[in-house]
Amino acid sequence: MKAFYSFLAVIVLILVAVIGGSIANLHFFFGIIIPYVAFVLFVGGFIYRIIKWGRSPVPYRIPTTCGQQKSLPWIKQAKIENPTSALGVIVRMASEVLLFRSLFRNTKTELREGENGPQLAYGSAKWLWLGSLVFHWSFLIIIIRHLRFFLEPIPVALQLVDSVDSMLQIGLPQIYITDLLFLAAITFLFLRRVCVPRIKYISLPADYFPLLLIFGIAVSGILMRYFDKVDLISVKELALGIATLHPVLPSDIGAIFYVHLFLICCLFVYFPTSKLMHMGGIFMSPTRNMISNNRMVRHINPWNHAVEVHSYAEYEDEFREKMKKAGIPVEKE
Amino acid sequence: MAKYKLPKPGELSSSINYNPPAKDWMDIPVEFKPATYPAAAKEKDLLTVGFPNAHQWTPEDEDWNLPDGWEDTVIKGIEERLSKYRSFKLFMDVCVRCGACADKCHFYIGTGDPKNMPVVRAELLRSVYKRYFTKAGKVLGRLAGARDLDADVLKEWWYYFFQCTECRRCSVFCPYGIDTAELTIMGRELLNLLGLNINWIAGPVAACYSKGNHLGIEPHALKSNIELMIDDIEDITGIRVNPTFNRKGAEILFVTPSGDYMGEPGIYTCMGYLMLFHELGLDYTWSTYASEGGNFGFFTSNDMAKRLNSKIYAEAKRLGVKWILGGECGHMWRVLNQYMDTWNGPADFLEVPVSPITGTRFENAKSTKMVHITEFTADLIKHNKLKLDPSRNDHLRVTFHDSCNPARGMGLFDEPRYVIKSVCNNFFEMPENTIREKTFCCGSGSGLNATENMEERMRGGFPRANAVKYVHDKHGVNMLANICAVDRAAFPALMDYWVPGVGVTGTHELVANALVMKGEKERTTNLRGEDLPGKEGNE
After folding, report:
1. Do residues B402 and B460 share a domain?
2. Is B49 inside any structural domain?
3. Chain A window 115-134: which residues touch B at a Cβ cutoff of 8 Å?
4. What are the two backbone dihedrals, phi and then psi, of residue B337, each rounded to the nearest 5 degrees?
5. Can you tell me the distance from the alpha carbon of B463 to that of B452, in angstroms, rounded to the nearest whole number?
6. How far is the alpha carbon of B23 from chain A, nearest alpha carbon, in Å?
7. Position A230 confidence tier, pLDDT thresholds 50, 70, 90
8. Based on the domain organization, do B130 and B240 belong to the same domain?
């Protein structure tokens, strides 16, 4: 049901885009106005969310230590999993952001029949890690590839990415490896939400919606590259115009392009309001981005207010006679 | 409550079902199943520490006697905490519900209750956050995963935030490092605004505040407890150790959890400290005022934790010691490592700890000036300062349980292992996915070590016990070593239930048994009065 609502929402968005794409009078709105608005909302929203998080202090230094601490010189410290230097934290964060280190640890808990009732076993579970990694990396490469629409001349590095990505040299235009991987990964991430009972149980519309939206973006993109081919010269003209703040509306790009563009705009607008902000959030996670040098350097809590304590003097007043009797030294005889 | 009987282990593990129920979790009201929750806090204990809205109630009551306007108190409480803790705000926002944490929680593994999945435990709070603090939640309501705060939600919070031991295992696996402990801490702080603590936390907190330790042992009684241990040590070794209390001018203040003062097997660990320090001729003192290393305030609110923790530095200053040595305890070391200096530092009246025996300077503790006893002892052994006879522990086949907090809030892994391997000849690790940073909780941490919630504890401890059983079956392991007073208190029941035949010991009990002291008589028994290997029937 939750997946269905999300599906419905994406369908509605596609219909809106189809209407926008098929009525020429609306092209200016859908081709230029909405992209600008979406871009501004994305960048503004993203920054707003980061600032909002940043305004709350980090009162305590609470890294999750996933390896041996630095203690005695002959005990080998886990310099990345329990970092005591900025470099260690940078490597730790890089491995989280670029390689999904923590997700790589994933295991699968199973109950197996034992002699006296079920017993626990833990198996390897790398599919989520692999699926997510493929999803995010293909997405990134696809976005980088798209820069060719916004740049003239196209930088050599971009051309290189393009040629590596299409090195299979199948079809015309040549199929991008990342397109295939991207579709496969989204399908996997979606299917596990629908098919794995436990994951289905925890999933919300807010989990299905972005997957379906991105799926829509990918499919519309693939359709217009390989099947319902659009005029790429016109697309580039529009993209360059938008990028250089001199937007011009080329005639007749094709309705499918407007679907692709509109869904991207929707993703842009939706992004800062949603869980997709994990993209920015991961950099701010105190359990991962802090140096684990708690006993070496004092961490300051900006709101470290005074609290009421039970002082030694009060304690001694209460127990003085008992202490004296037991031969425990006291301050006041 | 009807008389409750704990099901047999096989029955209990057979009852675990990981298939989620048909109904959405929001539509399943919390059910207070017998023996799965601790008793409510007593009014008098909350009054001792001046907590708001202290009142008598029980979880089974339909009406919890909540104060007027309690919803407002909670919402304002959330707002205040969002502005104070980036962790709270961020963790409310960035979860993508990928499910990596779902089967990492010992309570989920032991119950199959979906609300024990860390992601859902967070959603219990997140759903309310969304409703009152996000536009999507305000407009879309349930469709955005938001819900109103009402008395049932509050009861659900109480049940599930006291069914989390703040062990942080989920945070190891979360791709964003979302730490459920942070959320449980916030959840419990909010509940405490309404007087909704549990007895097993509020009682020790009140005792610690007024008497110096969780058990409420008064100064003279503390001294006599330790004197009893001194007598036992003399019987076993022929040596009379001579500790001091509240002594000004000592070089070192020693602070340990009060679980070590009373009850087995904690007292044997305590005897271990006494014997080791005597053998070294350490210039140290105990304190009756700062007689608690543990901190149940930490399971209540960060302010309460700070109030209790303040005694350690205050006492170190009053006594004029140079540095502080800390005993074997789990959450105590999370607090000492990650919080104490921030709350009650800087400890500029102390010196960077230097071992008077080896001269090792503990640079890793140069700001807090507090050293973990296994760091201290590992250093002694490495420098050959102790005469050890590990064969005295030859009847033991030992495994080591990494306590959650020293593991994931500190990274203390190899020090205790080095010490144990130096004093025991038979050491076996539990499976890789159940040790070190992936260690499983005893199921009774963060104040849940009561008796009325025994099924909760046995279920929560199931993954740990299961791993012990593995090495028990495979290697004949018969002793579970640890560095935590709650472990020593909780594991005996857990082992008796799941893995009968496995004992529980602190690390310094093993050290003391192997320690050959100067001028000792020939030992025939260990600290527990059991015959040493090869000394059977020598009496």
Report:
1. yes
2. no
3. 116-120, 122, 128, 132
4. -80, -45
5. 21
6. 9
7. confident
8. no
State how many domains chain B has. 2
Give the domain ranges of chain A.
Answer: 2-325
Which of B15, B19, B82, B86 has the highest number of chain A CBs within 10 A, making it the mutation to test binding with A? B86
Residue B397 and residue B471 share a domain = yes
**Mind listing the pLDDT tens digit for each residue in B9-42?**
999 999 999 999 999 999 999 999 999 999 999 9
Which of residues B139, B164, B194 is at a domain's end? B194
Residue in B closest to A328 by C-alpha: B245
Neighbours of A312 (CB within 10 A): 20
Q: ipTM of this model?
A: 0.96
Residues in A closer than 8 angstroms to B345, CB to CB, are 298
DSSP state of B260: G
- B262–chain A nearest CA distance, Å: 18
Average pLDDT over residues B404-427: 98
The answer, yes or no, to whether residue B434 has pLDDT greater than 60, is yes
Contact A198 B246 (CB under 8 A): no
Instruction: Identify all chain A residues contacting B95, using CB atoms and an 8 Å cutoff.
Output: 275, 278
Q: Which of B194, B212, B242 is the last residue of a domain?
A: B194
The answer on B16 and B146 residing in a single domain is yes
Query: Quick check: bond before B38 cis, omega within 30?
Result: no
| CATH top class, domain A2-325 | mainly alpha
Domain containing B92 equals: 9-37+56-194
Least confident window among A62-76, A237-251, B384-398: A237-251
Contact A57 B86 (CB under 8 A): yes
* Same domain flag for B502 and B385: yes
Q: Percentage of residues in chain B with pLDDT exceeding 90? A: 98
Residue B83 lies in a domain: yes
Q: Residue B523 domain-assigned?
A: no
What is the C-alpha to C-alpha distance for residues B346 and B338, in angstroms, rounded to an integer? 13
Of B143, B218, B463, the CB nearest to A319: B218
Q: Answer whether B89 sits within 8 Å of A53, measured CB to CB.
A: yes
Q: Which two tokens stand for residue B293?
A: 């290393």
Instruction: Say how far apart CA A309 and CA B304 lie, in whole Å.
Output: 9
Cβ-Cβ contacts under 8 Å, B412 against chain A:
69, 71
> For the whole model, what pTM was predicted?
0.96
The answer to the question of residue B47 being in a domain is no
Distance (Å, whole) CA B201 – CA B188: 11
Q: Are residues B118 and B218 in the same domain?
A: no
Do both B292 and B186 map to the same domain?
A: no
Look up residue B134 and give its DSSP letter.
Answer: -
Q: How far is A31 from chain B (nearest CA, A)?
A: 27
Least CB-CB distance to B96: which of A100, A207, A329?
A207
Contact B497, B465 (CB under 8 A): yes
A133: tokens are 């990694």
B141 touches chain A (CB under 8 A): no
User: What is the full DSSP assignment across B37-63?
Assistant: SPPBPPHHHHHHTT-TT-----TT-S-
Among residues A242, A267, A269, the alpha carbon closest in space to that of A253 is found at A242
Instruction: Give the minimum alpha-carbon distance from A157 to chain B in angstroms, rounded to a whole number.
Output: 31
CA distance B481 to A225: 64
- The residue among A70, A85, A189, A312 with the most chain B CBs within 10 A of its CB, best to mutate, is A312
Enumerate the β-bridge partners of residue A108: A123
